[in-house]
Design goal:
The chain is 49% helix and 0% strand. With 78 residues, it is mainly α.
């Protein structure tokens, strides 16, 4: 359920269909995931999961797998 919410939130945030997102999705595989939408995703994650992402870490959040792993590590995702 949480995974579906994450995928839906990201899809809605960058204006794509949820079916375009899976665990292997990243900036290279989703053309809409450009630099502007990347910032939107970061802001979405901070708001929805009540986390603070350091500016120096923004460049790490370029794949769904990394995002899921990060949220799991911080006990915001299961």
């Amino acid at each position: 359920m949480i995974k579906n919410n994450l995928y839906k939130n990201i899809a809605d945030c960058i204006g794509i269909d949820i079916n375009q997102i899976n665990k292997n999705s990243d900036m290279q595989s989703i053309k809409e995931w450009d630099s502007i939408n990347h910032i939107k995703i970061i802001l979405l994650l901070e708001k929805k999961y009540k986390i603070k992402i350091k500016t120096s870490d923004f460049d790490k959040f370029t794949s769904i797998k990394f995002i899921e792993d990060y949220l799991k590590k911080n006990k915001k995702y299961s």
